[in-house]
Specification:
This protein has helices at residues 20-30, 58-61, 79-92, and strands at residues 3-10, 35-39, 47-51, 70-73, 98-99. The chain is of the alpha/beta class and 102 residues long.
């Protein structure tokens, strides 16, 4: 099975309550070999993750409307919920959204 292509959208970082980049690095480390995390503007994405530094959720508001599943996080404690969503997402995503492993 290939890698699921997921887009990451970051907020502007004006009021972060946690290390957003570190959060995504931890996520990518835990899911290495199963997901490919890319910028939110890439083509052929299976879904999007909006990484917000606070509850204002600017990353979610600034996303262009696209017919893709999206998960929004606003604090470091959201990691386990996101991991569960990604696990279910990987089971349900059509094979056409996978890319060969690099």
């Amino acid at each position: 099975m290939g890698l699921v292509r997921m887009g990451i959208a970051f907020c502007g970082g004006c009021n972060p309550s946690f290390d957003r980049v570190g959060f995504v690095e931890e996520l990518a480390s835990r899911l290495r070999g199963r997901f490919l995390f890319l910028g939110h503007n890439e083509k052929d994405l299976a879904g999007l993750i909006a990484v917000n530094g606070c509850l204002r959720a600017c990353a979610t508001k600034d996303l262009e409307p696209r017919p893709l599943p999206c998960y929004s996080i606003a604090e470091a404690g959201d990691l386990e919920g996101l991991l569960a969503w990604l696990g279910a997402f990987r089971r349900d995503v059509p094979e056409s959204r996978f890319r060969e492993r690099r």
